[in-house]
Each structure stands twice: as structure tokens, then as C-alpha cells.
Amino acid sequence: MLKDAFGRVATDLRVSLTDKCNLRCTYCMPPEGLDWLPNAQLLTADEIVRLVTIGVERLGITEVRYTGGEPLLRRELVDIVARTAELRPRPQVSLTTNGIGLAKLATSLAGAGLDRVNVSLDTLDRETFKRLAHRDRFEDVIAGLEAADQAGLRPVKVNTVLMRGVNEHEAVPLLRFCLDRGYELRFIEQMPLDAQHGWSRADMVTADEILALLTGAFELCPDDLEERGSAPAERFLVDGGPSRVGVIGSVTRPFCGACDRVRLTADGQIRNCLFAREESDLKVALRDGATDEELAERWIAAVRGKRPGHGIDDPSFLQPVRPMSAIGG
Ligand code: SAM
């Protein structure tokens, strides 16, 4: 088991397949992009599957989420998903994506065994999309969402980051859009994980503010609040249900005490927290010929040292060197 010193058990593995992305969302990276990892440093598909297999077969991982960067940019994605879905005990297999290219791939991914997708969508306005993501790809995202739904990758979840003065006025239309289509919307508080280090607490639209924006238009009733468990989203029934909306207050309502996540970066580093300042290198060990047992031991040690919380409110808080795109969101 991947157990830390505070008794938390990691069962949810987030695997970044690439640090590259085809969008430049302002809360993530600068318009010119970043220095991408050289290909030789990226784990190969076989290396990824080997590590995921160790996680599932030896270490109690029950959910594998592929992310990035943009995971749809990884050519071997369908194969990686298929090999993951063949593992026993069968893990849940999900994908976090910006949706660009999903229109073409959704059916193959569903056929390969993908269970669910989260698609990021911050606006319903094409011009705002261009301003926010520095790319004119709004229609591709909408097409990707529709394709995911048609392929049965349900519930299709939508991730939205609200930014003051940019898209906060879209909270209500975004929720209506999702309700009309049967998508489950989750608002995520903006976190200090941008490559430009431009995050400021004052600019962050908080969970309280998001809820205030929504309750002007909808009746929200807390859903299974007692059972939030390790789920980051506080969920609310909308207008009596069954539709729900989630609010992930990563900064103002942290859920670190119940965190069950561990991350594998595209270059083979285990991170026990999004905000960790240390990583544990599995790639070098793997390429030096380590056995599965040795890799599992390293992984166990990496999780054991997980800190009790992300510490954003600590005076000593330092933003991690890697931005979200290079960690895997
Ligand atoms: N490219 C994929 C996508 O867009 O979903 C996967 C990677 S992206 C880093 C994963 C999620 O992280 C997205 O929903 C994105 O909105 C969110 N994200 C990125 N930077 C963030 C930040 N600074 N604060 C909060 N969420 C962030």
C-alpha cells in the first residue's frame, strides 16, 4: 500500500503523458509556451505501462487518470489506455483533456476501455476563449465534449477555472450549458501553479464567491457532504437534482486531510502532492535495470514523506518549480 505518515492511502494515480499542450491558458503558461521536455526524457509507452502495472498490481492503485500537458497529443494514448484497462484488478481509467482532437478519438478511447473524461472549458464565448487560451479552438472543444458524450464516456465532467474580470460572469451560463447537455460541471479555484508565477490570492475567484454567483440563479443543496471523503469537489444538487455541480476549493477549502492522490510526471518522477517540492525519480532507476520490487519500494518511500497539507497559507509557502502543465493536473 502507498501509505503516508499521516495514515492516508494513495489509490488514485495521475499520470502525465506529456508536458506539451496545444493551448496557452493564462493561468497555466505564457503565450509563447515553455521549454518542453526533450523526447528522450519522456517515459516511453512501455515504461508508463510498466509503472502503472506496478501501481495497480502491487501498490493498491484503483484509479488511473491520464493527463498532461495535453494527453491527446500523445500518439500512443489509445494503446496506453487499452493496456491499462487490461490490468487486474481492473482500475478505473479516466482522462483529463482540453478536448481538442477528442471528436476524432472518443470512440477509439471508449473501445480501448476508457471509462470517463474531464474536459476543460472556461468560457462559452469564442473571443474570450481566444483571449484566455491564445488559440482559436473553441469549436474543437465543444465538438470534443459532444463526441465524448456520444461515445458513452459518461458522466462527462467539465472543469472550469473562473478568473476575475475574465469569465466570472459566465458561471451561470456555463452551468446552464452543462445541465442542458447532461455534463457535470466542476468549478476549480485557481491555484498558484502557473509558469509565470502570476497567481494572486486577490484575483482568485473563491469557492464562496462561485457559490454566491450560482445561488442567484439556481437552488443549490449540498449533496453527500458527509461523504466527501477523498473527492476534491463539494457537490451540490441543482434545483432539487438529480443534476449536480461541484466546487473544488483547493485553496480556500483544502481537502489535503483526505487526499488519496499520487502523481507520475511525464519524465518519470513520483510527486506525492501537486505542491510538493521534492520528487522521486523512477525513470533513472527503471532505465538502470531496477526490478519491479525495487521500483515499488522507491514509490512507497516517496509517498511516505507526503506532507500533511499543501501549505499555500503558510508564510513559508513556495510555489513548486514545475508548473501544472509539467506536473499533470
Ligand atoms: N490539458 C488538459 C486539460 O486542459 O484539461 C490536462 C492538463 S490541465 C493542467 C488539467 C486541469 O488543470 C485543467 O482543468 C486546467 O483548467 C487545470 N489547471 C491548470 N492550471 C491551473 C491552475 N493554475 N489552477 C487551477 N486549475 C488549473
UniProtKB/TrEMBL annotation:
EC number: 4.1.99.22
Cofactor note: Binds 2 [4Fe-4S] clusters. Binds 1 [4Fe-4S] cluster coordinated with 3 cysteines and an exchangeable S-adenosyl-L-methionine and 1 [4Fe-4S] cluster coordinated with 3 cysteines and the GTP-derived substrate.
Enzyme class, broadest EC rank: lyase
Metabolic or biological pathway: Cofactor biosynthesis; molybdopterin biosynthesis
Superkingdom of origin organism: Bacteria
MF terms in GO: GTP 3',8'-cyclase activity
Binding sites annotated in the UniProt record for [4Fe-4S] cluster 1: 21, 25, 28
InterPro entries: Aldolase_TIM, Elp3/MiaA/NifB-like_rSAM, MoaA, MoaA-like, MoaA_NifB_PqqE_Fe-S-bd_CS, MoaA_twitch, MoCo_biosynth_MoaA/MoaC, rSAM
Binding-site residues for GTP, renumbered to this chain: 14, 65, 96, 157, 261-263
A Pfam short name: Radical_SAM
Residues covered by the Radical SAM core domain: 5-223
Cofactor field: [4Fe-4S] cluster
Reaction equations catalysed: GTP + AH2 + S-adenosyl-L-methionine = (8S)-3',8-cyclo-7,8-dihydroguanosine 5'-triphosphate + 5'-deoxyadenosine + L-methionine + A + H(+)
Keywords: 4Fe-4S, GTP-binding, Iron, Iron-sulfur, Lyase, Metal-binding, Molybdenum cofactor biosynthesis, Nucleotide-binding, S-adenosyl-L-methionine
Binding-site residues for [4Fe-4S] cluster 2, renumbered to this chain: 256, 259, 273
Subunit structure, as described in the record: Monomer and homodimer.
Function: Catalyzes the cyclization of GTP to (8S)-3',8-cyclo-7,8-dihydroguanosine 5'-triphosphate.
Family that this chain belongs to: Belongs to the radical SAM superfamily. MoaA family.
Name of the protein this chain belongs to: GTP 3',8-cyclase
Provenance organism: Nonomuraea mangrovi
